[in-house]
Description:
By secondary structure, the protein is an alpha+beta fold. The protein has helices at about 80-90, 95-110, 120-150, 200-205, 215-220, 235-240, 245-250, and strands spanning about 20, 35-40, 70-75, 170-175, 180-190, 190-200. The strands form 2 sheets. Strands 2-1-3 form a 3-stranded antiparallel β-sheet. α1 (about 80-90) packs across α3 (about 120-150) and α2 packs antiparallel against α3. The radius of gyration is 21 Å and the shape is globular.
Amino acid sequence: MIHNGDIGNPPQSLDQGLIQEYITHSWYSYPEGDSVSKHPSQGVTQPNYTGPTPPYQYLDIDGKYSWLKAPRYNNTPMEVGPLARVLIAYAAGHTRIRQLVDGVLSSLQLGSEALFSTLGRVAARGIETQAIAERIDAWLDQLEANIGAGNLQIHNASKWEPSTWPQEATGWGTTEAPRGGLGHWVHIRDGKIENYQAVVPTTWNGSPRDALGQRGIFEQALIGTPVADPTQPIEILRTVHSFDPCMACSVHLIDTQNHELTHVKVEAF
């Protein structure tokens, strides 16, 4: 994850304890009130829709206006995704990534500040794809050699069986999904899941403002975007699309009564 302008700063290791989620402008409620933040391990997902009844023209952005929570790292909005990964690799001195980034900027006759843009996010996706394509054969050869030698550490099934779990436990895990940083937190009590929370890439990028008034990454990216035709705001769509958003992943709501909400039937041609 990156904060705007971080290309010159050395990468830092993740401290998951610095992650907090605000709901000040989100359609949820916390028992302690809407101005507090919570670590995902203590997260609460209690829907509290206070928005207008569709159809409507505008949302009241002075109040709650999003189904996404507002995750923050050390109280700072962070961008995740291909651009973040490429810039972190660049700052860490990754030789091939530096060659590819410098080559793109040179070809376009742009400075490094151009990376923090719609163009930069699209370019980073191509740079990352190029770098992975160049390495994938070697990685597959290593995987094949490890499996052939009996090294199966890529899959650790020691905690797969629930009967082996303690009666009460907490755990967390983070990884890099294609869209960006992904985190999961779980609390097990009496051998069952008591609480489960996820902070996914689009929640990081698409979050609303927090209790400090800080805008999420989508909102920051759209400030000052010129729109040639307000009736067809393709420029806004192009910028949002550069994040590859997934709203279905970002909003976690379930019907506790097991009612069918939607039924989709696909007819074969």
